[in-house]
């Protein structure tokens, strides 16, 4: 489902190795050019299909994570369709990445498919390259959303998988009935 990337930059390889070595749970990628929160999959189930809804087995969790960010954002939560990002108002300021536009090689898809990390993508403003004097406002618009999103790390199942002697079990596979996506324990 996740097509191979022919050329992988050294810094990308380093990030991939880092993500596999530390059991991150949540991450967010910050972009510019729109005002919306997207979640995986970013790559369409059908490679020739643009704008095709492509949910992960954890669709409900990803929607909850994206909404946690969007609902705490003062502009994304604004119901005006005339503002930057207004075309996403009816969707609550969130969208499945591939339904917006499909692309291969994204970090959110990589994290979901190859690590235990759930990543959303936050488009922080309609300017792709905001001016330096706009960064303070962008920070303040996103600060509470980032904090709200970070608090989501406490949602779901957490604990220690151990043997009968209480020793943690490394790389134990954890399955949740009804969700076809396992995670593994860390060190």
Automatic annotation (TrEMBL):
It comes from the Eukaryota. InterPro entries: CarboxyPept-like_regulatory (IPR008969), CARBOXYPEPT_ZN_2 (IPR057247), Peptidase_M14 (IPR000834), Peptidase_M14_domain (IPR050753). SMART domains: Zn_pept. Its cofactor is Zn(2+). The active site is at 123 (proton donor/acceptor). Residues 1-153 form the Peptidase M14 domain. This is CBPZ Carboxypeptidase. It holds the Pfam family Peptidase_M14. One of its GO terms (biological process) is protein processing. Belongs to the peptidase M14 family. One of its GO terms (cellular component) is extracellular space. Keywords: Carboxypeptidase, Glycoprotein, Hydrolase, Metal-binding, Metalloprotease, Protease, Zinc. One of its GO terms (molecular function) is zinc ion binding.
